[in-house]
Design goal:
- The two termini are about 15 Å apart.
- This protein has one domain: Ferritin, core subunit, four-helix bundle (Ferritin, Up-down Bundle).
- Helix content is about 70%, strand content about 0%.
- The protein has eight helices and no strands.
- By secondary structure, the chain is mainly α.
């Protein structure tokens, strides 16, 4: 089995792209913005529930980064003179249901969920941007590179596990459960339903790469993905 390469967060990942399955730019922006608003809400809940000031401080910075990415996506919507509400609202129910299903039973599961789902979906939306018009693609990729989410969330989860090693088995199980819902959320963004062998063959290697990235995240935490 070939060795997995180290993860390079928020880089333009074009090994496998989704050109044919990328939705129109307005649909892409509306869905991606709605999802990032949900990321901000998810992280804000984690701030409120954090047991230590250090964790609250760290999560406040992470939530601020998610908000800045959301604002950059909204700025692109407004630059195109599109109606933000009209673009985002069709996606709100789906992303809010995803947030509900992946919220977790306690703070530890909340931050593990944020680490897994935000990392997985950021990788996915970066790949999906490959099919956008060049000007939109460049601005979207720039928005999704604002700040850093993966590394600080990793450190927060890592500290929690170091303080209570008994969390490892529970969080490993929880993170495995998250993958299915997160993959469904990713598939919901595609321009067409995956209803043919050709479509499935196009998406399958992308999902394989995303799962490999997820496995690396879990390995870095000492969890079994």
């Amino acid at each position: 089995m070939p060795a997995l390469k180290p993860r390079d967060t928020a880089t333009a990942m074009t090994r496998v792209d989704l050109h044919r399955l990328t939705p129109p730019v307005d649909q892409y922006l509306g869905h991606c913005a709605a999802l990032h608003l949900t990321f901000f809400e998810q992280l804000s809940h984690a701030v409120a529930n954090a047991p230590r000031i250090a964790d609250k401080d760290a999560l406040t910075v992470v939530a601020g980064t998610a908000l800045r990415r959301y604002e950059a996506l909204v700025a692109e919507i407004e630059r195109r003179k599109l109606d933000r509400s009209a673009l985002m609202e069709p996606h709100l129910h789906g992303v809010q249901e995803f947030e509900r299903r992946t919220m977790g039973a306690d703070w530890h599961e909340q931050v593990a969920s944020a680490h897994v789902t935000i990392g997985f979906l950021t990788d996915f939306w970066m790949r999906l941007a490959a099919g956008l018009p060049k000007d939109a693609r460049e601005r979207v990729e720039q928005a999704l590179r604002i700040g850093e989410l993966d590394a600080p969330l990793h450190r927060i989860v890592q500290r929690a596990i170091a303080a209570n090693p008994r969390l490892s088995s529970r969080l490993a199980l929880w993170c495995r459960r998250l993958v299915g819902d997160t993959m469904l959320q990713a598939r919901s963004a595609l321009a067409v339903a995956i209803d043919s062998r050709d479509d499935e063959e196009q998406i399958e290697p992308v999902l394989t790469e995303l799962i490999a990235e997820h496995t690396r995240r879990m390995d870095k935490l000492g969890l079994t993905a």
